[in-house]
Design goal:
metal ion binding; 4 strands; 4-stranded mixed beta sheet; mainly alpha; about 270 residues; signal; metal-binding; single chain; Peptidase M48; 14 helices
């Protein structure tokens, strides 16, 4: 209750500030203010996650933890290894819970503001090794942790409408945001946000020392090599993999974490369970 009240106060206070003050306190590289506080991220993410859960549960596609404990144990292990990086700013602020959506035709993952993570079974079954899964998850965690998602949503929807969503007063917009994050709508991150998420994916995977930290590049390489008429949905919201592959590999080489060998038997078990 306190967190919800404080979240509402945070947004209302930000809206009441003169624009110059807000811009000076939290801006992107172009000087655009981010009016959301961390508490606002949490409130908005909670609303979007609730709408996402409701939508996929109604379709019978939300994989429930109670009936799939082992699958979640395996996936949680990957997420927790990525989150073990000391470079994650909001490790103790955001939810960082993960849920599986049973949709084999969709090769995607996304994270809401406040760190609610969703992974489609189509992505899990598409990948060749666990480093690739960790790389994609690291990329999505970076979007939430670096607060790219909040900035992008603010630019697309405007602060007043997001305020309404955060306060639970606009289910239709929450559903629209959830659809956009899932790759079914029009939410696309800027090139700068994509590049930063790629770089932090490498950094996050390097922290625990477990994965080949260019795992995200492996996903992009596979998607390119297959030349599918309908590429993975991940690429609809995360386009232009060409230069990104090289940038990810360059960062991994710089950190000397590119050639680690990881046992992917847990990923194979997870794929069988789903």
């Amino acid at each position: 209750m306190f967190r919800r009240f404080f979240s509402r106060f945070g947004l209302l206070a930000a809206l009441a500030l003169p624009l110059g003050f807000a811009a000076s306190s939290c801006t992107d590289k172009d000087g655009n203010p981010l009016l959301f506080s961390l508490e606002d991220d949490i409130a908005l993410g909670d609303q979007v996650a609730a709408e996402t859960d409701s939508t996929y549960r109604a379709q019978g596609k939300l994989v429930e933890r109670a009936s799939n404990a082992r699958a979640y144990q395996l996936l949680d292990a990957v997420v927790n290894r990525v989150l073990n990086s000391s470079d994650i700013q909001h490790r103790n602020d955001f939810a960082w819970d993960v849920k599986i959506i049973k949709e084999d035709s969709t090769q995607n993952a996304f994270a809401t503001p406040g760190g609610h993570i969703y992974v489609f079974t189509g992505l899990i079954k598409y990948l060749d090794d666990e480093s690739q899964l960790a790389g994609v998850l690291g990329h999505e965690i970076a979007h939430a942790d670096r607060r790219h998602t909040s900035r992008q949503l603010q630019n697309q929807y405007g602060i007043q409408l997001l305020l309404s969503v955060a306060l639970g007063n606009s289910e239709s917009t929450a559903a629209q945001i959830a659809s956009g994050l899932a790759g079914l709508g029009s939410l696309k991150f800027s090139r700068d946000f994509e590049n930063e998420a790629d770089q932090y994916s490498v950094i996050y995977l390097n922290g625990p020392g477990y994965y080949a930290c260019d795992g995200a590049a492996g996903f992009f390489i596979k998607a390119q090599s297959q030349g599918q008429a309908s590429p993975p949905e991940f690429l609809s919201t995360h386009p232009n993999p060409d230069n990104r592959i090289q940038a990810i590999q360059t960062k991994a080489t710089e950190l000397n974490c590119r050639n680690r060998t990881v046992n992917s038997s847990d990923l194979r078990e997870l794929q069988r369970l789903l």
